[in-house]
Design goal:
single chain, 5-stranded antiparallel sheet, 41% helix, alpha+beta, 111 residues, elongated
């Protein structure tokens, strides 16, 4: 589902920082694995979340590392909520209202 740029931009800042052994993000939706994304590929991680937006109440990311046999190890007890459907929908609704108000204001000025 396509989300407004403002919502997607907010997601960018919610990913946990990667340093040391942590090189990837493990992305889950309501504890269902959605994917493991290399830390240098933030756009791919955002695309993955947008692809699954609306299918889960919460989408989270945790720090992870992938070894030479593609085995994933993540920081199990430490994750960041990237998308919360209810909160994001509220932001989307507020954005729509703001655009309607701007349009109505512009029309009123021209009248």
């Amino acid at each position: 589902m396509k989300v407004p740029a403002a919502v997607r931009k907010g997601w960018e800042h919610r990913f946990p920082g990667l340093r040391g052994r942590w090189t990837h993000w493990k992305v889950t939706g309501d504890d269902t694995l959605l994917g493991v994304v290399e830390g240098s590929r933030l756009t791919d991680a955002l695309d993955l979340i947008e692809e699954h937006y609306g299918q889960f109440s919460s989408i989270n990311a945790s720090r992870a590392t992938v070894n030479e046999t593609s085995e994933v190890t993540d920081e199990e007890n430490s994750f960041s909520e990237i998308s919360n459907f209810i909160k994001d929908e509220k932001i989307i609704s507020q954005e729509r209202i703001r655009k309607i108000q701007e349009t109505n204001y512009s029309v009123a000025l021209r009248s």
